[in-house]
Amino acid sequence: MEKLISKYFIPGKTFFLTDYLADGGYKAVRTVFEKYQAKEVIDLVKQSNLRGLGGAGFPCGMKWSFVPQNTGRPVYLVVNADEGEPGTFKDKYIIFHVPHLLLEGIIIAAYANNVHKAYIYIRGEYVEPYEKLKKAVEEAYAKGFLGKNIFGKSYDLDLVIHRGAGAYICGEETGLLESLEGKKGFPRLKPPFPAVVGLFGCPTVINNVETLSYVPYIVNRGAEWFAKLGSDKNGGLRLFSVSGHVKKPGVYELPLGVSLREIIYEHAGGICEDRKLKAVVPGGLSAAIFTADEIDIGMDFDQLRNKGTMAGSGGVIVMDETTCMVKALLATMRFFAHESCGQCSPCREGTGWVHRILERIAKGGGRGKDIETLLDICSFMGGTTICALADGAAMPLRSYPTKFREEFEYHVKEGKCPDLLLMEKQ
Amino acid sequence: MPRLTIDGKAIEVPKGTRVIEAAKKLETDIPYYCYHPGLSIAGNCRMCLVEVEKMPKLQIACHMEAMDGMVVRTNTEKVLKTRQHILEFLLVNHPLDCTVCDQAGECWLQDYYMKHGLYDSRVNENKVKKPKAVSLGPTVMLDAERCILCSRCVRFTDEISKTSELGIVNRGDHGEITVFPGKELKNPYSGNVVDICPVGALTDKDFRFKMRVWYLKSGDSICTGCARGCNIQVQYNLDRPHHTKGDRVMRIKPRFNENVNKWWICDEGRYGYKFHDYNRILMPLKRVLGKVEELTWHKILPEVAHGLTSAKNKFGVFLSSQLSNEELFLAKNLFKDKLKIENVFLVPGSPPGFQDDFLIRADKNPNSKGAEMLGFATEDKEIHAFLADCEKGLMKGIVVFGSDILTGLKEKKVLQAVQKLEWSVFIGSNHNLMSEYASFVLPSATFIEKDGTFTNFEGRVQKFEKILEPLGEAEPEWRILVTLARELGIHFHFDRTEEIFKALVLNVDFFKGMTYEKLGTGGSDIRSMAAPTIPALEQDANIL
User: Fold this and answer.
1) Residue B506: pLDDT above 70?
2) For A128, which of A138, A392, B511, B512 is 20 to 30 Å away at the CA?
3) Partner residue facing A349 (CB), from B93, B122, B171
4) Torsion angle in degrees (nearest 10) through CA of B450, B452, B457, B458
């Protein structure tokens, strides 16, 4: 399988401008400037079936076509590099190893949407990637790839890097916009959507790092080629971040629609110490969990959604038979309780409440109806809030106790892990 | 105009109307906390979730725009169940300290629990601890544990007072309202955050622990603090003097009027109610050679009338722009038209002060415009000329209404002039320097103890009604004028202010066509004289 982005992921190495140019970098931008109208670029991306790889999987070309031009206001491009979804670390790799690929994607996206000012909102904890990115941007300015009259054309593009301050919610696109505007990261009510009223009240395109990084390939090698790499309506490859109990955790660039079993057992080398697989989170912590029996599934946006979970950010978290599902869910809910922005009542109170119930169960203080209460809280937490954080919390909250019901019941009743019991039996 | 149905009832509303407002028009109850018609939409409490046909998820009625053909349901099992659970969420970390909470009785958590909750608690966990009894500024106390983070107060300081003292810090269920570092909630409108706080998180320092709200009675009135004439509610208690040390008025709340003050009032008006119960003149007083004697009205009025008659027009009358239209009209009729007194002046009852671009007016009198429309236009030089005449001994007496002309005019000369007079009459509700000098002091009612109308600076004529009986022997000025006139042999056949108003309407063009009935609770604007319009949907008793 040909590697596109991940061919640059050489440990310790960053492809700065010289290296990147030597590898044929910035060819796509030149092609676009010479051959394409803005609308043609959008059509190209539409045909490529490129999906938003930040998590929502929204068709990228369609997103671009929603941006109203001629509103008398500037259009902004905001690059979401907040990468906060637990289990996801692909954008970090891109920015660290090949920041110019992202910049090339940004320039093309800017051109396609008539953008003259772009922002990269980068996760605050990503200190090293930030340093690399900063250097790359400086190089691009020095070379005339950013700034006034870029590439010698009468087109201006300024790029600002903004560092986040550690809030998961600022990865939610409207929370990110608020944060970028200098406010508290509270997601906005929609409509209006950011495409119409976004940053500073202006039409705004928001794309994930990985999404934009594939754009140069689409320009260079064609939409049809890219579309064919993936599955139906899910064009191209994507970077799967694989972590947990696997022999070779890491970032794997595979076609959309690749089977989960293949990812775990072929690419990631199987389960540590060849233990039994117990559960897998297929698309970042917010995705509903799979049991070991459910891994024969194509990892694209549509197939996973049909299975009641989501492809999300491509963060695959593998758990083997030694994992206590109560503790796994406790860790998950601790995260969501900590990261809920606190705006909507169901999410603010629900995540914290669930976390405390799970903490009590984990400590052996489970009570009769705890599991029913958890599931009940879950059903009123999801779908009732401004943003998707509560939905993301509700997915694991429903799937763990449902799919591992016996284990949860044992915990509530006996106040300890059944694993020990199972081991005693063996 | 989009036409939608809510629970099967059809309604047509202007484009842009939110579903929650359309529902109000149909008197369909959709509960909410964070929504406030006077503030931007936050959509965070999620209480107003309703079902909208063809939409998979429940939608918040406060944000959802009414669309043509929209079918909304507010009473399906899904909606009711969700509502119940949202309320449960809101109460997870609530301290449930109703027994010691000032908001009890007017708390939306209590009200909605009884209406939409009624579940058994399932919370076995410890609650999140937050600061309690935090002073946010001179007027407001915060209990962060009771707060449901609806952000109404934050939006108020951002959007209405434009002072931005408040914000929400921390995340998730650790979020809390606070003042920004180095700031305090200190602005001319700070008290409003207490009104709009739907729970007991923000309480009023002035009212805290004074009285349980269910003991309060309420009357509608007009604030007399400035020329704006904000619509207010006067909340009082007469039954529990052991709680109130005899005070009657417990607090002032704003009353919605689209054309005057919307939902708001300033702190000056809100907290400036003490004069109703303090420092009052309770009996007619006669002062002879520094000795004060309490007299009945029957005894004092003939004496005053005698003074007036024997002065043979050699006296002056100082009217005040604190007087109602009716009283000014009556006084003008009596002194200028009937008695032919030349020296009838209008002086501001209170000196001018601070003004802003929102509600507060520099003119601190409620009826300057009314006085102007009734033909009062006093120039300072006329008053000076009169005072000079007094000093020369050309004048015998003076009748002063309400105003403290001794301090009000800031003239040492005034005192010298007044001391030269044979007699002086002060008609007022509260003691001041003038009442310390006047030879006759007649106790008058405050504006909550009488009926009448004021005309605000924009020309809106607004009615106020008697809420409480006058303290002691006090009488409304208009009644004092009627009785005094009778002593002088002039018979006004007025028993109620409405009768005076009718006469006024017939005589003064400006008021043409107005009646008490037409003024209603919202008043009439002289510029339009259309029937007062208050959109029904905005009249939400809950808000105030």
Assistant:
1) yes
2) A392
3) B93
4) 140
Give the closest of B63, B81, B125 to A360, CB-based.
Answer: B125
For CA atoms A152, A153, A158, A159, the dihedral sign is: negative
**Letter string b/e over residues B417-436, b meaning 16 or more CB atoms within 10 A of that residue's CB:** bbebbebbbbbbbbbbebbe
Q: Cβ A384–B58 below 8 Å, yes or no?
A: yes
Say if the Cβ atoms of B44 and A343 lie within 8 Å: yes
Contact across the interface for B173 and A352, Cβ inside 8 Å:
yes
**3-state secondary structure at position B528:** coil
The residue among B6, B89, B80, B16 whose CA lies nearest residue B49 is: B80
CATH class of B285-537: alpha beta
Task: Determine the CATH number of domain B3-75.
Answer: 3.10.20.740
pLDDT score for A156: 98
Residue of B78, B108, B124, B127 to mutate when probing chain A, most A C-beta within 10 A: B124
pLDDT digits (tens, 9 = 90+) for B202-247: 999 999 999 999 999 999 999 999 999 999 999 999 999 888 888 9
How distant is the Cα of B79 from the closest Cα of chain A, in angstroms?
A: 11
Q: What is the pLDDT of residues A19-33, one digit of tens each?
A: 999 999 999 999 999
Does ipTM come in above 0.85? Answer: yes
Helix (H) or strand (E) segment spanning residue B339: none
Check: CB of residue A15 under 8 Å from CB of residue A6. no
Q: Note the pLDDT of residue A28.
A: 97
Using the beta-carbon criterion (under 8 Å), do B89 and A350 form an inter-chain contact?
Answer: yes
- Across A372-380, average pLDDT: 96
Check residue B408 and give its pLDDT. 65
Express each pLDDT in B96-129 by its tens digit.
999 999 999 999 999 999 999 999 999 999 999 9
The per-residue pLDDT for range B267-295, each reduced to its tens digit, is 999 999 999 999 999 999 999 888 999 99
CATH assignment, A6-229: 3.40.50.11540
From A2, A63, A43, select the one nearest A255 (Cα to Cα): A2
Is the CB of residue A337 less than 8 Å away from at least one CB of chain B?
yes
Put simply, the answer to whether A342 touches B85 (Cβ < 8 Å) is: no
Domain B3-75 identical in fold to domain B285-537? no
Contact (CB<8Å) A345/B45:
yes
Domain ranges of chain A: 6-229, 237-320, 325-425
Query: What does the DSSP assignment read for B360-398?
Result: --S---TTHHHHHHTT----HHHHHHHHHHHHTT---EE
For B124, which residue in chain A has the nearest alpha carbon? A357
Contacts of A306 (CB under 8 A, 6+ apart): none
CATH of domain A325-425: 1.20.1440.230
Question: Tokens 């989170």 identify what position?
Answer: A281
- Mean pLDDT, chain B, rounded, equals 93
Distance between CA atoms of residues B431 and B283, nearest Å: 11
The CATH architecture to which B125-276 belongs is 2-Layer Sandwich (3.30)
Q: Does B16 touch chain A (CB under 8 A)?
A: no
Residue A314, strand partner residues: none
* Residue in chain A lying closest to B32 (CA): A345
pLDDT band at B409 (very low <50, low <70, confident <90, very high): low
Can you tell me which residue has the tokens 């698309």? A283
Domain boundaries, chain B: 3-75, 125-276, 285-537
Is the pLDDT assigned to residue B543 strictly greater than 60?
no
Phi, psi angle pair for A201, to nearest 5°: 75, 10
- The reported pLDDT for the residue numbered B410 is 63
For B417-437, write each residue's pLDDT tens digit.
Answer: 888 899 999 999 999 988 988
What does the pLDDT look like over B341-350, one tens digit per residue?
A: 999 999 888 8
- Interface check for B82 against chain A (CB to CB < 8 A): the answer is yes
Domain A237-320 listed as CATH 3.10.20.600: yes
